[in-house]
């Protein structure tokens, strides 16, 4: 074991492959993909497409969690930004709509970041404020109605396709590439990991932990805004009550499945997105298998518990201890 | 003098509630009646009961996100047990309380023995409880048992149309019981100690594991009781009932002056926090033109104001004397 392999997330990819295989067993057409009207169709594409909002959220969430934080407000931010996009879509050109919506996401992220970094409020509580109030704000924007729009430009972001791939997938890939470029292309990722690992030591080492904390929440807000726009564009409207409801939990779950510890430190954006796909593949599988969709929550709970217990420092140590014990007894037998 | 300073957050919350009540009464002359106050207690009884359990959890430095789902599960279980399986209501109550307590004990044990953050364990509990209630039934089931009609008719009549209903009585009893348990017993002292510092609590010879498991057992059992009250209040069981109540309960506890980092707080403060939220709802329904989403925004603003106030007092306290030992960074 002198040569340590880089983390490639074998377990997550195996899990995804197993779930996809299970889906193929319950529905033999699962892997069929056909090209129709210049767009790809099929269950597999559907998993990617439906998984896009959670994948987008998890890209922002993984950075927040790597900093020992948590962002509970992303679902509410989705509702706010979706509401803004839907209510402006028919009266303003697309760039204005996007600027307003993404700007709102940035502002929400900035609010969270300032509460955490400057007022030093615990992340769960700081983002809880926007989680509670955000849905009210979204309803204020839509005036309590379900706002619909007809703008084809905005609708393209949810239902259109680029080179055969549905736009939500393209947007997610673009956001993932951009985030990877910023975080892994520079030393920023290292600084985030250092701060998550030991905030005080990192600050003493000269890392601007406060600024990075704010930046990470702002990025999470931006990702949530994009997810909100995609969700709105998909249904050609905005429902302030239900848009993004409980998606913050799915995003946290995706990050945890992706192997990023809730105690901060090392993170993987790519595996968080794989985690989001695992969740969506399970959802789709349950629907395809004809099981009641209500099973979904129970399955999710069991999966999150299993992953957490595997991640638990104490249980991990015990399993390692058992391994050592077995190893010893085996070597004794050999001698 | 020092004990008075200790009570500042609770006094501030109470002052906010009284000021709010006076403002509402000035705006609507009918507001200042015993009837409105009694309705405030009845309508928020289930939230008050949950908030008491949440106070224990938060003072111990934890959080319980599963309570809303546990309420939902309880109502569905009761409706099925009483209406379909023919279990007598009182036995169904006992059964569901035992189930909920066991559920809380399991979560507490996982938090303690797997050393996982309470937030994520109770999040999984939230999924599980909601999922199980979906599996039991997705319909809204009416409960028509005699006991239910009897209990909802039963109330202390206080004159002027004011009624102290059974849910309100149960909530007041839980609040008083919670105050006694937290402030006068050894278990209560352990809860405060855990919130101050887990490591130091263990070194003091207090059984940390037992206390942690008991705290989450208490929270879930109270959520179960709250579910019983909720089913009395609505005479039905529905798997989607009480969605988001965990957030209302946390908000009430924070508004009530309990420190989210643990180690400090009062059950009475949470009770007032619940009443403040109820007051906002009542004001909105009196007004008639304001929409219900203003309640969410107002709650969010209040949360922010109280947390900012907490941070400020903490900051000032740290400045005046060195940080007390065991405060986590």
Short note summarizing the structure:
Chain A: The chain crosses the membrane at residues 12-31, 51-67, 72-89, 95-117, 124-142, 162-183, 204-231, 243-263, 270-291, 297-326. Chain A is mainly α and 335 residues long.
Give the CATH class of chain B. Mainly Alpha
Give me the Rg of chain B, rounded.
Answer: 20 Å
Rounded mean pLDDT of chain A is 85
Strand portion of chain A, in percent? under 5%
Q: Judging by the overall fold, what is the CATH architecture of chain B?
A: Orthogonal Bundle
Shape verdict of chain A:
globular
Categorize the overall geometry of chain B: globular
Main-sheet strand order of chain A equals 1-2
Let me know the largest β-sheet of chain A: 2 strands, antiparallel
What's the helix-strand series of chain B? HHHHHHHEHEEHHHHEHHH
Q: What's the CATH topology name of chain B?
A: ABC transporter involved in vitamin B12 uptake, BtuC
Architecture per CATH nomenclature, i.e. the level-2 architecture of the largest domain in chain A: Orthogonal Bundle
Biggest interface, residues from each chain:
A-B, 48 and 43 residues
Unreliable spans of chain A are 1-6, 326-335
**What is the domain tally of chain B?**
1
Class of the largest domain in chain A in CATH? Mainly Alpha
Structural class of chain B: mainly alpha
Number of strands of chain A: 6
Instruction: For the largest sheet of chain B, list the strands in their spatial order.
Output: 1-4
Oligomerization category of the chains in this entry: heterodimer
Quote the beta fraction of chain B. under 5%
Main location (chain B): membrane
Membrane topology (chain B): Multi-pass membrane protein
Keywords (chain B): Cell membrane, Membrane, Transmembrane, Transmembrane helix
Protein name (chain B): Sugar ABC transporter permease YjfF
